[in-house]
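User: I'm curious whether this sequence folds into something compact or stays loose and floppy. Could you predict its structure so I can see for myself?
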Amino acid sequence: MSTSPVQKRKLFDSINTKIIFVIILSILPLNLLVIASTAKSIDVIKEQARIFMENTASLYMQKLDNRISSINYFFYDLYGHDADFIRLTELSGDDEYAISQTAVAQKFRKHIETSDSADGYFFQTKEIRDSIFVMPGSRLILDSAIAYTARSMLEVRLTQTDLSRLGMWNLAVIGGRQWLLRIYSYDTCSFGAVISMEEVCRNVMESIEYSGLKVDVRMGQPGEIADGDLRVSSVSNRIDLTLSLSVPASEVIQNLPWLNRFMIGMAFLYVLLIPMLILSLNRILLRPLRIIRSALLHLKAGNQDYRIIIHNYSKEFRSIDQSFNEMADNIERLKIENYEKEMARQKTEHHNLQLQHRNLQLQIHPHFLLNMFKLIHSLAQTREYASVQKLALYLSNYFRYIFRSGKELETFEQEYDLIRQYLEVSAIRYPDRFTINYNIEAPVMKVKVPPLIIHSFIENIIHHALVADGIVHIHLSASYKDGWVTFFVSDDGVGMDSVTATNINDGILASNDGILASKEDEQTHLGLYNTYQRLLYFYGERSTIHVESTPGNGAFFTVHFPYVLEEVNPD
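Assistant: Here's the prediction. I'll summarize afterward.
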């Protein structure tokens, strides 16, 4: 079943999905880096091992070539210049022949003991089957029994083999061991030398300390090796002989530094920790956020009695839960207090029940409150906890200011603090959309004013005067003179048409029965209408509101009323 675009969008909008992606994207690059670094280290170690094995194979092959050259030169000198050796090839059979035979045997033995050449020499006549075999055990680091066995088998082989068919140098198994054999075959005699390849292989293995090292010597091309083995080969410059070394790659990798092994282990550990990280974040962050979201949805649905059960998650969420419960309590108390206040005012106010309802609308601002809750939810989803706390504190102060002791008037100093908090919260919702400048004279701070009387002008600017492609500059100032206080609220935003400005200045904001002329007017100017009515209610005709505005050039409001320090009784 395919997933619809809406479902995909909801999936990727989920904070759970985003956190999982963040965790994976945080760990995956590190794992890839570790894997790449380790692979590079393995390649370096393999290359170092290969170079070392290659140099070792080349060194021993060079030594072997030197031994072969020494043997060739030795026989060349004997066959061409040595009188004893020449006498043996002539098959004279006299006493001098016996003396020459002993002399040649001594020369064979001396050459073995004084030079790094052959491990054994032999000479055999073809007609009289007279033989000389010199293969000392001490030279091969073998006991005399093994040397004797090898010598005897070599004698049998030379007797039974058609020497004329043999090549120059060949590998042969003699006495159960591998030898490099060279036979010079002439009409009257055959002679040659043997080199123990088993000793060469043993020396190579002692030079390279790998337990799984294999040394292979063969004529021609090297043989096949097992998969995963590291192999090098060296070819003789003298004969068709190849020395091959192979070692399992796994044994080479055992030399990987401990730090690389530790990094590999950590990479696997990070992968295993992903579920634990998700579970921890679910408990620490996601579950509390779901509780807050559920509470906001209950409140939005009209369940005013819903409260959050405070859990011991973290101090930030405890503060948010407490603030939410306080706001819900204030809303509930607001409904009760304003209902009682509305019933009491019916006997004294000169306006009807509709005006009381509009005053209640001004104080509560459900649309404003729901927007604040939505903003809290959005900030909580993006984990901007500092902004959530600031917004929660503002709403708490907002309701506390409205319902403080049930008073009709409060000092402007308190409203001034609330205005500053409101603009800080608005800056979160509309970043870089406005600036604010204050110029309040000190005496004005003590004047008694109806709650939110100036706040509503600032709020109206934020809701209606901001422009989409610029910054609106807001200015709030107040002065005191001769028992009167004057507030100036200005902005350079969208402004208003001349008809609306004239109606505001003439006080024509409602029909004769107190109802605004149109639904659009009711939505746009309800706050201004209620502000005007409350000024009349507390200060009578002495209070005024005046505006200067044109479309696109902002608005300049002037609010003028008597300076009072005591509670006002409109009756």
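Summary: Confidence is low (pLDDT under 50) at residues 350-358, 510-520. The chain has three domains: 17-253, 282-379+389-397, 407-571.
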